[in-house]
């Protein structure tokens, strides 16, 4: 492969076709450390060893990776578009980063001088996207990723937002079954969506009827005798965080068991260098992208599901590219054989990319792990924009503009949501209030609204993003906050069930990583984080409109369709009775803005003081 993106594409496409026809699934990186090779590397330069045929025995393969792009073609606004950088003096600095125009430039610049270069991703490239991509079912983002020369990606849970059939269309192409084709070619005919040039991998997602992987389980990248295998999978818990309708007929399997299974398959095919792309992640000890994850010891700076997966997965796997938690880390977590193994994640929204050097031994066909180096790099907005990305964004913006630029409300200051960094966010309060208002229009008995924090995808920023003016909230900005098209539902729950649901925020599947529901005005309680599990909810503190929650009383509760189905581990909310389905959540938010804000009287950021947190 050449160093630049333009001449790379024909050869890469040809290689993919050949590999796929051979029954393989291409791409890859990394492999097990060989003591002899490691010792040789200590004694001489890695590129100095020469094989019998005059070729250098080892070659450095560049692995560029990222994750959780979520259709952020345009640079994300507010805190969603910033990364934290630790300074030499110990202070921290916020840097504006991300967006397709800059990510493309970063990747293309990084590839220069690297004849062996692979670009891989760890899922959630689409789904929960801003309007520019989401309005068109993420076709613009897939087109952009193709132009960036992405080689391979695992699926994430958000790749299932519109169901398995839509994921298949994203992979294989074709116009949307309901919305059709969005553009016309030069002859005036419908321009069909071409699909992803790169393979999406679904090793641990199988069809119930056949037991076969939904898409390809693995991919083998080949270049001048170098072979690297990629196994791609999503988190086993995907059914808990996506709509049940979208994954009917599918099974999601244990991550470690799946990795071990396909590591053996690749090994039998002579592929000794293996990288796992997994949409599951961890929680780093620091939010700074450049902190030392291996301090005081290897992998000590990371916790969460990925740590256990990495410690238990087959030593045949040489590296992990991870995602899901939107965090940044580069760690070496020992494998079951006690050998160091790189585990990386590059934040989200294209704000970072990871550059990993894999030293491939041509004789053993494996990666010399002691030679593996990796680091996260900021996708800075001070670098030149990629012209083809700018043209792509402008083209789709013209189609979206009539809808995206329409004002829907007014705010007097920033209203943080996803970027708040606190259990309760000002935007979470606003959304819950909007859903309660919509629910009351359907049933005056509606008493309280609950909103899942993961459904809030961004912040509302006071500064104008375009020509709309400061403080103006556009339809596109509101869509970016709530892109899922969930409906606002009403159900009956007893006080006891409501209390159980509040406890499920911090217990069961949510104990390790609490999911604090955003609550409407009138509901208050204390969250005591010094305690563990369900005890973190101080029972006697729960009040609705100043009165203690009555365990035996029935309350009319508003919640989105995702929570009404028991999503995010809130099984108790799925037991509601007397359901009533309202409008979609975005309409509820926009209606609330229309009724409660104007240019003269904008909405002030809520205080986010409904939950008292004890630390």
Automatic annotation (TrEMBL):
EC number, as in UniProt: 3.1.3.5
Similarity comment: family membership: Belongs to the 5'-nucleotidase family.
Protein name from the UniProt record: 5'-nucleotidase
Disordered as annotated region, ranges: 73-94
Record has Hydrolase as a keyword: yes
Keyword annotations of the record: Hydrolase, Nucleotide-binding, Signal
Signal peptide (UniProt feature, chain positions): 1-31
Calcineurin-like phosphoesterase domain segment(s): 66-327
A GO molecular-function descriptor: 5'-nucleotidase activity
Organism: Streptomyces spectabilis
Gene Ontology CC entries for this record: outer membrane-bounded periplasmic space
Lineage: superkingdom: Bacteria
All residue ranges annotated as the 5'-Nucleotidase C-terminal domain in the record: 411-571
PROSITE patterns assigned: TAT
